[in-house]
Amino acid sequence: MKSDQDVDEIKLTRGRDLIEGSLPLVSLRDVNLGYDSAPVLQNVNLAIYPGSLVGLAGPNGSGKTTLFRSILGLLPILSGSLSRVCPLSNFGYVPQSAALDSQFPLSASEVVEMGAYGRVRSYQFTPKGERERIREVLNQIGLPHLAGRSFFSLSGGQKQRMLIARALMVDPKIMILDEPLSGVDEESRKSITDLLVQLTRERNIAVFFSSHDLEMVQRVADGIVRVDHGQIQLEERKARLQP
Amino acid sequence: MSTLLEIVQPSYLLFPALLGTLILGLVCPLVGSYLILRRTVFLGLTLPQIAAAGVAFTFWLQQTGFLPQLGQGERGIAMFGSLAFTFLGMGLLGYLEQRGKGLAEGRLAAAYALAGGLTILFMVFNPVGQVEVLNLLKGEVIALSRGELQLLAGVFGLVFVAMLMFRREFLLTSFDRDLAFLLKGRQVIWDVLLYLLAGLIIAFGVIMAGPLLIFGFLVLPALAAKPLVSRMSSFLTLSAVLGLVMAFFGFYSSVSLDLPLGPTDVTLGCCLIFLAYGLHRFSAKIGVAMLILASAVALNSGCAREIVATTVPEAKVIRSEQVWLAKVKNSTALPLFLPTNNPLRSLVEMAGKAPSDYRESVMDLVRDGVRRELEQKGYRVALPEDMDARFPPLSSDAGGAVRVAREGKLSGLIFVSEIRRWEGTSQQFVRVLADFKLVRLEDGAVLWDRRVQRAVSTPSATNQGQAYMDAVREIVRDLFA
At a CB cut-off of 8 Å and minimum separation 6, what does A81 contact? Predict the structure, then answer.
């Protein structure tokens, strides 16, 4: 069956011991996605396993964000089945920084701290352990010196890395990044892609990111999901960055 | 004692009003900050207007007999109307938001216009209670009683605690709804809670302080704080601090300059915004230092301003015994008659000292009181109208009074009084601005003058008429004691 074959294809992209015996973190079978009963993507079959780095490529308006929003439970699927093996609080979501309202006076550390909000009770001050964790993830993304800076005064690349740090704060099993490299200079692109590869290799986090830059996706990702004209196509790995 | 030190004394007559204003100044900006950040600031304008329509509506129902007349409980009735309309309006706006029809700003603008129109229409339908409704809509926080202060502290205290407790949830749902969903599930509960808290302070605040002041406290401190901070925690803290500054200095200016509190506070809030954008050019430390310096200068100037009040001199001191006591001029545009149930009136009528259509006024009471006290000081008091019945009340402008008196062929001394403001929105006190002068007609020299500009306490009054009489007695005692 075509759908099973597609699911297997993504398995093959990792094709290593890493995923042997493990369940997919997210799997979609014969899923139709869209708004107000009008499907944007049809017959989507997809499985994402721990430690995989999957790129989602396609032109603007092709349905990349729709797919992400459905996986995150923000948009109900129209038909088919979608299963997740971990709760939504274990999903690290990195939105496009341009989608966030620059009206908010927020420091970079306050943005990162939001990732811990799911664990901190309403009446509590931020626990010491969480403050240490913020320092830790800021070190991990290499920007501890910008913690006190206004988030919206940072460059595009710095903002994106801060949002990755925020996603890391939730201690994710899977990270979903919506156009993490758009509006980012070349140097930041490299540091972000290095970081994503590092997360999949060292922490076994599954990373699913979108980009309209197919060449870059081919260069970085283990597997590629292409969306166009309401359909998705799964491609084998073409190349991989070395850690 | 200076005005500044006087108003912070718990024994000060308007101390509950000061505390009430400070509570509004502390809590409203916390809620208003989120309205601004969520770009729903017009909700802060529309909801108070809807609450005002609720107040006018309940008074209209009361006048038509659908609701009982409660006398002293009129604020309770108004509060019910304010709360009901606020939450009804919020529900309707929320429903339309969910339906996603039309522009959000358009819906708010239409709701504001409708609420404003309905407020006026309900007042027109209810000519009997128009003055009471207008007073309530003006929201004289200055007339806050201790009981109302306790209610205000309770409700706003609850909102304050909720805003602190759920600050993370409110921030997350306002800033990134997707992340809020992933971490906390359906965020609609936090939206509802935030708007519920906003509705609560608006519904109560409109009754206590009026729509203008509530809207001012909701948005102005937060707008002033925004350019000065880069952290959310600092933004909320500074908004609340600026709200307190606006409340305190607004109250101080209102009392010392005898200005209405709402417009004074709002004007001050706008000045804070200009100041904040000016300070924004400097570093944060210099900005805060300049703000503290400006506050210190304002405080110091307030402390340094001592008002020395003198009493009317004895007749022998100024070597003159004859004084003409002019009619008291009423410049308030209000008739200032005592209410018709004044028991003294029937006594006066029975004694044949007044015609049946005669109604005693505040001016009469003042003149009688001044006459008694002048006689106590050794003056021989004469009335100008005894010499010429056409003598009008004379203004406190010494030049004008002297000219008219000379034209009337008076000589010696003349005592002139002018009431410029007389507001009795509460039985607990009357706000007064009145000028009194003792002028020598020969050379126009002002031998003594005094301005009474304060809220005169009338704690034992049980009705408006008694409050007026107590206030006159207090003022006269103040002039001559």
Answer: A28, A29, A30, A31
Rounded distance between C-alpha atoms, residue B37 and residue B225, angstroms: 12
Tokens 């000081």, located at residue: B377
Q: Residue B221: which CATH number?
A: 1.10.3470.10
pLDDT in tens, B142-177: 777 788 889 899 999 999 999 999 999 999 999 998
Q: Is residue B312 part of a domain?
A: no
Same domain, B291 and B415: no
Q: Which homologous superfamily does the CATH classification assign to the domain defined by A1-86+173-243?
A: P-loop containing nucleotide triphosphate hydrolases (3.40.50.300)
The rounded distance, in Å, linking the Cα atoms of B70 and B58 is 12
The residue with tokens 């009489």 is: B469
Q: Which tokens go with A224?
A: 């590629």
Share the mean pLDDT of chain B: 82
Place of tokens 């034209």: B407
Other CB atoms within 10 A of residue B91 CB? 12
Mean per-residue pLDDT, B294-322: 65
- Determine contact: B193 vs chain A, CB below 8 A: no
Position A114 scores a pLDDT of 93
Distance CA A45, CA B386 (A): 107
Cα B172–Cα B153–Cα B67 angle in degrees, nearest 5: 105
CA–CA distance, A176 with A71 (Å, rounded to integer): 9
Residue A98 contacts residue A181 (beta carbons within 8 Å): no
- B311 in any annotated domain: no
Helix (H, G, I), strand (E, B) or coil at B364: helix
User: Is the pTM value of this prediction over 0.90?
Assistant: no
Q: Where are the domains of chain A?
A: 1-86+173-243, 101-171
ipTM of the complex: 0.85
Strands (E) in chain A, as ranges, are 26-35, 38-48, 53-57, 79-84, 91-94, 174-177, 206-211, 223-228, 231-235
Residue among B36, B39, B177, B182 with most chain A CBs within 10 A, to mutate: B182
- Partner residue facing A91 (CB), from B174, B182, B231: B182
Cα–Cα dist B51/B203, whole Å: 6
CA A118 to chain B, closest CA, distance in angstroms equals 5
CA-closest candidate to residue A105, choices B161, B238, B131, B472? B238
Average pLDDT value for residue range B334-343: 70
**Partner residues linked to A174 by β-bridges:** A91, A206
Partner A contacted by B230 (CB < 8 A): yes
Q: For residue B476, give Cα distances in angstroms to B370, B397, B467, B470.
A: 6, 20, 14, 10
Interface of A with B (CB under 8 A): 69, 72-74, 88-89, 91, 93, 95, 100-101, 103-107, 110, 114-115, 117-118, 120, 122-123, 149-150, 153, 166, 170
- Specify the pLDDT at position B284: 65
Angstroms from A238 CA to nearest CA on chain B: 32
Q: What are B447's two structure tokens?
A: 């031998």
Distance CA B205, CA B28 (A): 9
